[in-house]
Design brief:
Arc Repressor Mutant, subunit A; single chain; 6 strands; binds zinc ion
Length: 147
Amino acid sequence: MAHEVEMRALAEYLGQHNLKHTKQRELVLAAFLEARRHVSSEDLYQVVREKYPNVGYTTVYRTMKLLVEAGLATERHFDDGITRYEIEHEHHDHLVCIKCGKIQEFECRMIEESQREIAARYGFRILRHRHELYGHCTECSEIADRA
Ligand SMILES: [Zn+2]
Ligand SMILES: [Zn+2]
C-alpha cells in the first residue's frame, strides 16, 4: 500500500479517538500526500473528485482538520484567508506573492537566531512563530516592469 506509514498513523489516530476509519479519509490523505505544498481543501477536493466523484467537499474539509489534529498536516493561514496545508518536515518561513499567489519557502539561520536573541532579551519564551513576507515574485515583477 502507498503511504503506509501515514496510513497507519491515521488509522491509529482514528482508533484512539473512536472515529470511523473510512476509505474516503484514506483517499483524502493520499491526495494530500501527493499534492503540491500549501494546498487548500478546495484544491484537494478538485483532485479527489476527478477520481472519486462520490467524495464530498465536507469530507475533504473535515478530513484535513483531522489530519492537522493527528499531526500529519500543518495548517497555514496567509493574508488571503484561505487555509492551506503542508507537511512540515522542518521549520521554514514563506514569501507570498500577492499577485499570482505563489508561495516560496525559505529558511534563514540568522533570522531564527535573531528571534531567539530578541526573545531572550525580553525574557520571552517562544512557542512558535510565523514569518511571512508579502510582495511580488520575479515573474510578476517582470510583468509589471514591462507594462
Ligand atoms: Zn507572482
Ligand atoms: Zn511551507
